[in-house]
Write a structure and sequence with these properties.
Number of domains: 3
Shape: elongated
Oligomer: single chain
Number of strands: 21
Strand order of the largest sheet: 3-2-1-4-6-5
Structural class: alpha+beta
Length: about 425
């Protein structure tokens, strides 16, 4: 049976007029997907582009790119080649680092609103499920690869995910396709290759439909993950629907599994890396035992802090360098360690303003007319500024007098002293 109708149907689900991309490695799977996509786009005109990621990890990499060029030339499909550097020093291993480099290239080339097709099939799904199970993954990991998902304002889809590799091989032979085989696919030191060449064939001798049933289990896990995500969304709505700030008392009205689920859901909503299981358990243990204490738990790509009975989830952020300062005329945008800030500050009497921006050092005071002089530390507490944000504020000095406090990350004034006026810039970002 031809696989062409699958691709025709997938094309019908893409936004009209938007470019459809195919990730083309040069191997059998992606070469076939591009061939079928080109046929679909001839019947139903749609811009189609191919994207080849050149990893440069082996001598054959140039041949993969050359094959991709020949195939795209024959099909009349524009090809874009993205060269990437695979960084294996981050502790992800070669496979993980190469995947991260690939997705960085995808984001660089595929525009928001466009669709990228990937050529994974059912055997790949079975391998991914087994890898996740062997790593002790939860339901989300066991769900393996989704047939489609939104990613950074783009759409990723796998139109062939439900088909076995044998069906792809048969279709490629019918089309008389040629392709290149990646020599690294034979390296059984890599976990996925070991499963592909040793484990799955052995399972198939006992259970002939092993890849089908493993992929079906992944589909059930994906459905369960969707339901859990829906439950977590309901819990978050009940707690105020702010993923960055969770009420601790309300959080502890939930069972421990739902607490874990909600924190992970909130992190995902914020685009934070999910906390590893041990870090998440440490966080919940600290919350349970020390609700009135300052709690801080960090992990790569995320951080949790407690302040005033609320759990804050945020991206780890360094404080301002204590020795940084800048002269400022009150009108020009200014570059700070937290980025360019475009705000204005001027004297009410119209006099000259020679200002200096610097981080807080402690002991600063602001004068507010009839309200008198206020200690800045106490003022920030009253304003509800969390302690970790106070280390990222800038104090504006006029001579030896503190006249205002700025949150540069937000480009917002927190307080302005007597005799001064402040406003956002008329043309933010301009000098």
């Amino acid at each position: 049976m031809s696989l062409q109708p699958l691709i025709d149907d997938a094309l019908a689900e893409t936004p009209p007029g938007r470019v459809v991309w195919v990730a083309l490695s040069g191997g059998l799977d992606s070469s076939l997907l591009l061939t079928l996509a080109a046929a679909a786009c001839r019947k139903h005109p749609r811009p189609l582009h191919a994207l080849h990621v050149h990893h440069g990890l082996q001598d054959a990499a140039d041949e993969f790119a050359a094959h991709s060029r020949r195939l795209c030339s024959r099909l009349g499909v524009p090809l874009f080649v993205e060269h990437v550097a695979v960084d294996t020093a981050g502790g992800q291993g070669l496979e993980g680092a190469a995947r991260e480099a690939r997705y960085t290239a995808f984001a660089r080339r595929v525009a928001p609103g466009e669709t990228l097709w990937l050529a994974q099939h059912r055997d790949d799904q079975a391998e991914t499920f087994l890898l996740a199970a062997l790593r002790g993954s939860g339901v989300r990991g066991l769900a393996a690869m989704p047939a489609g998902r939104d990613w950074q304002a783009r759409r990723l889809a796998r139109p062939l995910l439900g088909e076995p590799r044998a069906a792809l091989e048969a279709e490629a032979r019918r089309h008389g396709l040629s392709w290149v085989d990646d020599p690294s696919n034979a390296d059984e030191r890599l976990d996925r290759n070991f499963l592909r060449h040793r484990v799955l064939p052995l399972l198939g001798t006992r259970w002939p439909h092993a890849t089908h049933t493993l992929a079906r289990s992944a589909a059930w896990a994906a459905e369960a993950d969707d339901l859990l995500d829906e439950l977590a969304g309901q819990d978050l709505a009940r707690l105020g629907d702010d993923p960055a700030r969770l009420d601790v008392a309300e959080l502890f009205t939930l069972s421990r599994p739902r607490q874990r689920l909600l924190v992970r859901h909130a992190c995902a909503r914020l685009g934070l890396a999910l906390p590893p299981s041990a870090r998440l358990e440490a966080l919940l243990d600290q919350l349970a035992g020390r609700r009135d204490a300052e709690v801080q738990v960090a992990w790569p790509g995320g951080e949790a802090r407690v302040w005033r009975d609320a759990l804050y989830l945020l991206t780890p952020r360094a404080p301002l360098p204590p020795d940084w300062q800048a002269e400022w005329n009150g009108t020009a945008s200014v570059d700070t360690p937290l980025g360019r800030v475009a705000v204005r500050l001027w004297r009410q009497d119209g006099g000259p303003a020679r200002l200096r921006l610097a981080p807080r050092t402690g002991g600063e005071r602001l004068r507010f007319g009839e309200r008198g002089s206020r200690d800045l530390k106490r003022l920030l507490q009253e304003l509800g500024v969390p302690p970790w944000e106070r280390a990222r504020l800038l104090v504006v000095w006029h001579g030896e007098t503190t006249v205002a406090v700025l949150a540069p990350a937000r480009g917002a004034w927190l307080a302005v002293g007597e005799g001064w006026r402040a406003a956002p810039a008329v043309n933010p970002g301009s000098g």
